Amino acid sequence: MTVALIDSGLGLLPTAGWLRRLAPSLDLLLLLDPDGMPWGSKSAQFVTDRLLAGGEVAVERGAQALVVPCNTATVTAIDTLRERFEPDIPVIGTVPAVKPAAAAGVPIAVWATVRTTQSDYQQRLIAEHADGIEVFPVACPGLAEAVDRGDGAAIAQAVAAAVEQTPRACGSVVLGCTHYPLVAEQILLGLPEATTLYDSAEAVARQALRRLGTDHAPSATPGRVDVVANGRPGVLPPAAHRYPVGRALAAAAPMPLEFLPPAVSVRGATSGTLLLE
């Protein structure tokens, strides 16, 4: 069984890592768009066209499910992708973890790309799940791109700018871009010590498995991890190897739990391996 993950860059790593951990026998097909990245700065039509093109390639290569581990692509074009491929092929999008963060009952900051921050989708999500909770949208220009490049200095600069925009009263920070969990500890270090991060990669992976009706049992026969870049067979870019989850996926190796971003992170309780090396 093959699950395809479609994103412009390295934002698919956390969700792919969780799928590898939960169902090692699955074949993973990672579809990247290095020619068109980053999607966050592109028009809605551009993102929609790229997402549909990725879906077509995935289905041609035998994918039984399509996962969109990208908040920007989900808020922009998930409905169009579902219209094209469902009900034959399940399509799973990525939603910022506003609901579990709101359950804590403290003010929330939602870090995301500029496009996601400005989207009606995120505003509806906040209105539906965080009614009565103070929510502060924080746009993080350049952070996803810096993570894609593995550029430590640019990551530090973008994180510092986002921290500056985040009110200190926010006890919860939702990582509303799938790139950000790759540097979760660096983000935590810049925030007040009691801050909790919320990420949705594990939940998206579990939802994909539910839609497929497959179990989570380990297998003696690990599945393949294949990469397609703009429709052509490829490999994960060098920057992916700067992150433990990227190295494990590049080697199609088993996925240690400590390589993965937890759904909820607090300082001192996350894995040190999430730091950029």
TrEMBL record:
Q: Kindly give the InterPro entries that the UniProt entry links to this protein.
A: Asp/Glu/hydantoin_racemase, Asp/Glu_race, Asp/Glu_racemase_AS_1, Asp/Glu_racemase_AS_2
Q: Please, which domain of life does this record's source organism belong to? A: Bacteria
Entry keyword Isomerase: yes
Q: Does the keyword Ribonucleoprotein apply?
A: no
Q: Which residues form a coiled coil?
A: none
Which keywords fit this entry according to its UniProt record? Isomerase
Official protein name in the record = Aspartate/glutamate racemase family protein
